Amino acid sequence: MRRSSVFAGIAFGALPLAACVAPSAPPPRPAPPVAIPAPAPTPTPAPPPPASADWRDWPVTPGDWSGRPDGQGGVAAFGGVGRMPELSLRCDRTRGRILLSRAGQAASPSLTIRTTSLSRTLSTAPGTAGAVAELGARDPLIDAMGYSRGRIVVEGGGLPTLVVPAWSEILRVAEDCRG
Fold first, then answer.
1. Closest among 17, 21, 16, 14 to 6, alpha carbons compared
2. Across the strands, what pairs with 99?
3. How many domains does the structure of the chain reveal?
4. Stretch 47-60: mean pLDDT, rounded?
5. What's this model's pTM, rounded to 2 decimal places?
6. Under 8 Å CB-to-CB from 127, ≥6 apart: which residues?
7. Alpha-helix runs per DSSP H in the chain
8. 139 found inside a domain
9. Which of 23, 81, 114, 146 could staple 171 via S-S, CB 3.0–4.6 A?
10. How far apart, in Å, do the first and last CA atoms of the chain sit?
């Protein structure tokens, strides 16, 4: 019994020491919330800069042409799927005009159109979808755009340069307008 009384005495004597433990530190306060700024909208990627001085070697702007009839004639539009067209041609049959529209806020009132056979600078006016130039339904520039070898370049107005393929939709709009 002697042994158990020694252990009991030590345990009983250690009890007051256990009560002398320093209080624990208070938990740290949470940091105030930090405002996370809203992400900036991502701009439409511009085509890469020209790889050569010859525009016929420049990469084509991503997108496709689409055509559709409309009450005034026809419309040909170039752009990415599910996005607003970058370039469009619309027939105004009653006036015998084709409206060429370039999307975006133009900084200057002109656009230059380059094809393999013809290059011309057109005066533009601001429109609801961007810069708009008017051409006669029989203007040779429309035919030059439709028959250009591979691509057409649309530049100016302080907007990114467009390099678009020369597809048949352009000539369909001209035919609709020419009657």
1. 14
2. 90, 134
3. 1
4. 75
5. 0.70
6. 99, 101
7. 2-18, 140-147, 169-178
8. yes
9. 146
10. 123
What is the Cα–Cα distance from 32 to 36, expressed in whole angstroms?
Answer: 12
pLDDT 10s digits, 75-118: 999 999 888 999 999 999 999 999 999 999 888 899 999 999 99
State the CATH number of the domain containing residue 161: 2.60.40
* In a domain? residue 138: yes
| Residue 48, token pair as written in the block | 């890469």
Report yes or no on 114 lying in a domain: yes
The verdict on residue 52 lying in a domain is no
CA distance 16 to 24: 18
Instruction: Compute CA distances 27 → 30, 33, 37, 78, 163, whole Å.
Output: 9, 18, 30, 62, 63
Phi, psi of 143 (to 5 degrees): -65, -40
Specify the pLDDT at position 119: 96
Distance of CA 119 to the CA centre of its chain: 27
Cβ contacts of residue 107 below 8 Å, gap of 6+? 157, 158, 159
Residues found in the chain: 179
- Look at residue 111 in the predicted model and tell me its pLDDT: 95
Q: Provide Rg for the chain, Cα atoms.
A: 36
**Residue 11 contacts residue 18 (beta carbons within 8 Å):** no
What pLDDT was estimated at residue 46? 58
Identify whether the C-beta of residue 126 lies closer than 8 Å to the C-beta of residue 132.
Answer: yes
**Domain with 80 in it:** 58-178
